[in-house]
Amino acid sequence: MNDELRTSVHHSSFCVPRSKFTTLAFYKPYGVLSCFTDPAGHPTLADYIPVPDVYPAGRLDSDTEGLLLLTADGALSHHITDPRHKLPKVYLAQVERVPDEKTMARLRRGILLGDRRTRPAEVELLLASPDLPPRPVPIRFRKSVPTAWLKVTLREGQNRQVRRMTAAVGHPTLRLVRIAVGPVTLGDLKPGQWRELDDVEVANLHRSR
């Protein structure tokens, strides 16, 4: 079929408009900036993504790993980043010591960070360490201090929010990996790898809340 005529794809009995924009899912490695240029010469997205005219929808700090979405669609980028849409972002956080249930309840209710209280969050204590690639710079390890993994789902994006929340309750974050943004997950991606979202994934992302 001629590309100019192919205006939709069919999936599960409904018709999905074909996106005219490119949208990527990227597994940002540790130590990489969420931008394409850096005067100081730090690793950036340009070291991994050769696709022109896509821009990060939001950001991950240099020391945070995981899913970063990039798109040429301004409306989609706004939908992903504007906290009014309450799009869930899911993180795995390795923290110092094992939080008790009282601490978990505080994280779920919301934490006062400066003059703002975080929205209620979904926080789960994982019973086993997640299967993640090793980090190129290992976390600091203290034999006398155990660690635990939390699964944290936020519907906002304050600066370094997960790290500040866990630090506020006495459990500093040692490693942080974002594994999902709305319906899009890391899947089989490895650090430094990216893939293009198909039209169904993009449509689901537009509709997600």
List the helices and strands and how they pair.
Elements lengths: L7 E4 L2 E4 L5 E6 L26 E2 L8 E7 L2 H8 L7 E8 L4 H9 L2 E2 L2 E2 L4 E4 L21 E8 L6 H8 L4 E9 L2 E2 L8 E3 L2 H9 L2
Parallel strand pairs: 5-11
Antiparallel strand pairs: 1-2, 3-5, 3-13, 4-5, 6-10, 6-11, 7-8, 9-10, 11-12
Would you write up a description of this structure?
- The chain has about 210 residues and is an alpha+beta fold.
- Helices cover about 15% and strands about 30% of the residues.
- The protein folds into two domains: about 10-85 and about 185-205, 2-Layer Sandwich (Alpha-Beta Plaits), CATH 3.30.70; about 90-180, Alpha-L RNA-binding motif (Alpha-Beta Plaits, 2-Layer Sandwich), CATH 3.30.70.
- The strands form three sheets. Strands 3, 4, 5, 6, 9, 10, 11, 12 and 13 form a nine-stranded mixed sheet that branches. A two-stranded antiparallel sheet has the order 1-2. The protein has a two-stranded antiparallel sheet with strand order 7-8.
- Strand 1 (about 10) and strand 2 (about 15) form a beta hairpin.
- Mean pLDDT is about 90; it is low at about 1-15.
